[in-house]
Amino acid sequence: MKAFLIDRYGKKETGHVGDVATPPLREGDVLIRVHAASVNALDTKIRRGEFKAVLPYRLPLILGNDLAGTVERVGAGVSQFKPGDEVYARPDDDRIGTFAEFIAVNAGSVAPKPGNLSMVEAASLPLVALTAWQTLVETARLKPGQKVFIQAGSGGVGTVAIQLAKHLGAFVATTTSTANVAWVKALGADVVIDYRQQDFASELRDYDVVLNSLGKEELERSLQILKPGGHLISISGPPTPAFAAARGLSWPLKQVLRLLSRGIRRKARQKGVTYTFVFMRADGQQLRGITPLVESGAIRPVIDRVFPFQDTQGALAYVESGRAKGKVVVELPWLD
User: Fold this and answer.
1) Is residue 182 included in any domain, yes or no?
2) 133 lies in the same domain as 267
């Protein structure tokens, strides 16, 4: 089968399309013929080698972290899917590889595709929708009337998180550039901070939850806008000892993460707020819970550009540039 691979980690690694064996089916797997796969910031970080200590992949590596497609075959013990079913999924993080003609995915990570979406639209959702769900619903336990600040409202996670937070009844603030202010308001944000002209830490006060997806400076300044008892949640780090324990990481790596997060954990305690690092996980049951929100229109996919599979490198470069509004999707040509 055809797949988009990297042979090594590094900023200069571009990747290439090559021929590889179709993945074998394990017990409990479904083999999915990929129609479309979205590109996430996670893909560019993996390519640079930023997660090689936590996710020790074997090279060469097929990139890609979510997909929409049709079930080709099912493995032993799988009864909830059959060949021909239209599905979408975020594979387990140790079995990525959606930039390919086929991928084998644990059936527990797969859900039926929303009936009102095309394959391209459905492929844009699994990773970002699960991230929004696991931060706002599972971790923050966001309640109606609470105030949440979502960084980078025009990004892949931001566009879905704004819609989910509004569905949950929260008051939502976000940041974006001047050109996108009206566009992000149309997604449902109550307050939009133009980061080119305004300082969110000066404008916002008494928030219950912050969802941070940016760097160290924005993370620490987010503490200023939280009320006592608030919750600072970061999907961009630094990871915490709790994350290291949950992942079963080695003792030396646990100590490294303890040191990396010590500063923000201490500052959070001084402010009387909780700091949590969330590294999203595959969860087909949660995707099934998200599907009705998509089919009702409460969550709409936001797609910036669609690239042909042959230009997967171009799609990765576009995401890495930071210019995308919403999601970027790669469509596989042999399924036209």
Assistant:
1) yes
2) yes
- For residues 222 and 266, state if they share a domain: yes
Supply the pLDDT for residue 228: 97
Does residue 35 share a domain with residue 139? no
Residues 55 and 144 in one domain: no
Same domain, 330 and 249: no
Average of per-residue pLDDT across 86-98: 97
Residues with Cβ within 8 Å of 273's Cβ and at least 6 positions away in sequence, in order, are: 223, 226, 228, 229, 230, 231, 232
Whats the size of the chain, residue-wise? 336
Structural domain count of the chain: 2
Question: What is the pTM for the complete model shown?
Answer: 0.97
34 has a pLDDT exceeding 80: yes
Task: Specify the pLDDT at position 334.
Answer: 57
DSSP string across 1-24: -EEEEESS-STT---EEEE-PPPP
Burial of 252: CB neighbours in 10 Å, binned 0-12, 13-18, 19+: exposed
Reported as a single tens digit per residue, the pLDDT across 63-81 is 999 999 999 999 999 999 9
Round to whole Å and give the CA distance between 336 and 334: 6
End-to-end CA distance of the chain: 16
Collapsing DSSP to helix, strand or coil, 54 comes out as coil
229: CB partners within 8 A, 6+ apart: 272, 273
In sequence order, the β-bridge partners of residue 61 are 6
For residues 156 and 223, membership in a common domain is answered with yes
Cis peptide before 292 (omega within 30 of 0): no
CATH number, domain at 86? Answer: 3.90.180.10
d(CA 201, CA 232): 14
pLDDT attached to residue 335? 45
Render 173-219 in DSSP notation, one character per residue.
EEEE-GGGHHHHHHHT-SEEEETTT--HHHH--SEEEEEE-S-HHHH
Q: Which residue range is the domain that position 193 belongs to?
A: 128-277
The span from the CA of 231 to the CA of 208, in Å, is 6
